């Protein structure tokens, strides 16, 4: 089981060091990649779960709960075992010693096997992700499947590299009068304890896998607590992990599922004295609560942010508009990396098609979005569906926030007539309205803001991100000096920056093994996916020594 994955682990270790392009799991759903019939088998596997208890044997109260409804208008009807917290935590603690004693290499190779099995079921997971998040199928396959799997493997590589950065044993010999002093020393990686992963609604696998595998590879049992609207993708994940661990001779309680229906289970688990690590993606409000109220745990949070674009000038007017239109439309802006604030000098900008006034920039962006989403049947494969009623309410309220540049309109989905789909809304807001644009409006909502100058735009970027956080920032300019200023502003604000994106790379997408997701240097996140700091606090090193 393990030996076949040594090459994959070695390539992952090389990739995190070089930061170039590498992917272990192909993102194309083509039959040439995953085999003839893989898509149909995955669809059948997904549909086999609907309307039934999920096949997961881990005990519980005896009650089966779950009320997931697809944003495409389908009640999934899948139920899951209601957990007993003390039983889950107790079983995880009991499973820890053997997993710890197995050592870093065995744990890493076992984790790679889990990810490999997950990859083999990518089409099944794609259906689960699509119908719990509202992502279009291709995005659900890519982001919920291979891209998430790459992030998992990246976390495994970082964990393994951190645990093996120094020798596990040493012969210590110090010169002395007469015979030297000689000691044999052993250094053991000791996990922090039981870990908790709190999943999100929009990217249940992509956001959960880094924490899940960073904790597991470093020796910590993991309790996975999904968002109540997006349980199935993580239930499948837990099922696979438990199967692999059992086959490898370990207690499957190393990974368990904790499902709820509005009982406040995340708070109950996060504050349990035996929960020593918490990974969370979601709202700023709950992320802040976790940071305040779980002092016994290492808490990693990814929260809301105000992603900002500064437009100074461009050498590709049409390329810039097309790139921005795609970024605003992808998954209806329901991404923690989607741009929100677009800062443009009130005097306009210089482009390869001549000077463009502020109003022309705003109108050009609105026109680009309109052209991109002009055909409903094609548009829904980009926008997906609105994930929950709160997003829809924000979209409908957005016109009251300023002058509407582009109205949102409903789209008809050809395959799912009950799906709720909306195109982006773009609103012009004055620069003194920081009470509006200075916080996140999650969903397909963006603001174009006329500033006094590019320097003022960069100052707004710096201020808002320092105050509210961001996961992405972007700048457009034909001036190297302005781009340098933008980079300095991003460094000051602690946000990752993309410049002059006009082609097939978009600000709201990041590549595993090369791009860092979040920085941990502003309020939007306490950690980066994935860097050494993300894994280092998940274990300690305990030494023993004796005379040789």
UniProtKB/TrEMBL annotation:
The keyword Lipid metabolism does not apply. Gene3D superfamilies: Aldehyde Dehydrogenase, Chain A, domain 1 (3.40.605.10), Aldehyde Dehydrogenase, Chain A, domain 2 (3.40.309.10). Keywords: NAD, Oxidoreductase. InterPro entries: Ald_DH/histidinol_DH (IPR016161), Ald_DH_C (IPR016163), Ald_DH_N (IPR016162), Aldehyde_DH_dom (IPR015590), PaaN_2 (IPR011975), Proline_metab_enzyme (IPR050485). Residues 85-488 form the Aldehyde dehydrogenase domain. The keyword Transmembrane does not apply. It comes from the Bacteria. PANTHER family: DELTA-1-PYRROLINE-5-CARBOXYLATE DEHYDROGENASE 1, ISOFORM A-RELATED, DELTA-1-PYRROLINE-5-CARBOXYLATE DEHYDROGENASE 2, ISOFORM A-RELATED. This is Phenylacetic acid degradation protein PaaN.
